[in-house]
Every structure is written in C-alpha cells, then in structure tokens.
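Hi U.,

Before I forget, here's the chain from the pilot set. I'm dumping it here mostly so it's searchable later in email.
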Amino acid sequence: MKLKAMIAMAALAVTPLVASTQLTPTITGDYLEVRSCDVFTGPCFANSEMGLTGKEGILVWSVREGSWKGTELDGLNVIAVVHTDRTLGDVRYEPRNGKAVLIVDDRANAKQKEALADFARSMAGRVIKDVADVKTTKIDVKLRTCTKMGCASIKADKLVEIATRCLGDKDHLCGNEDAYYPPLTEVTGAYPAFTELATYKGNGLNLTWEATGQRSAYLAAFSR
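Structure:
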C-alpha cells in the first residue's frame, strides 16, 4: 500500500510539469490582418456588405522567436493573400473556403520557406484551403512601432503594401460600432485599426485589389 501511495504521489508531482511543458508555445510573434470589408462596424453596415464585398484579405505573421515543426523561424515573416467563396465574416460559424497566394521572407532558407508556408496554412485553416502560388521576396514589417497602438506598415516588393493607423472618434459613423467580426485566425489581444491603404498587385488569384479608408484591420499577437 505504501508503494502504491508513493507512485501516486510521484505521478501527481510530474503531471503539472507535463502540463506546463505542453502549454509553452513554440512560436510567438505579431499579426496583422486586413480585409476588403469593415471589421469594426455596426450590424446595419455589415449586413449591407454581406455577399457583395469582403471576399479578400491579407494576413501577415511576423515571427518574433520560435520554431515550427523543428525549424527555427526567428525574425521571419509570411503573408497570405486570400480570396474566398463568400464574404469573410465570422469564420467560427460560417467557415469560408479560400484560395491563397503565400509570400515568404527572402531571408529564409529552403527549409524555413517550407515551414513558413506550412505554418500559415495551419493557422488559417479553411481560409487557405488551396494555395495558388508561393512567392519569395523581401518583406518589410513594422508593427506596433508608434506610441498609439494601431500603427503598422507592411511592404512586400510590388506585391503587397499596407498602412494602418489607430481608430479615432471621427471613425464612428453610427455610434453602434464594435469589433463585429473576430480575426480570421487564432490570436491574442486583437484590436481593430483603420486601414489607410491595403493593396495586392500580384498574380495567382485572377484579381488584384485595393482598399482605402476602411475600418478593416486587426493587430494582435500569436503563439502556438
């Protein structure tokens, strides 16, 4: 009986360590998302856009540190430009099947490029059901670089350009706005921002698009 009691106590002592190890993220960083419809909005505005716009989005993951499936990705970036079958709303209840062009950091080696692409697909789920193309280029990312949260700038050669700012009092149009649509992927600390410019001018999706002057962005952190 004493032996059984000692084994049970040892198991209890080990369990918290195992749980702690499982909860430790292997990769962390910052996230930016821009859509072609407002995400900070009221129900009346959202309903007027449903089915007509909001089928495009740009998702940016900027890795601070960590690895993905054993491959170190410290300081690298990956962008997914997506086009979906319908308006990108709340994908928890209305998942969308999307086609994407992935843009990976040109500083990554061959193994890291594969890991970045796999990471983006894993994080986005069905939003990236199919990958039309994977492009490699220099990616300049500036997130949370100003005193007011919400400022971001992204530049990926001539393919992608994004500039956001904080939402202000003048960005409230009806007084009933909220973060109506949650982010498209699992993140923490998400807050909406104002999109001054978001463009995609590449090929692979049979379209190019540009968004200006919309309340259509999220900045957040991610860990996995």
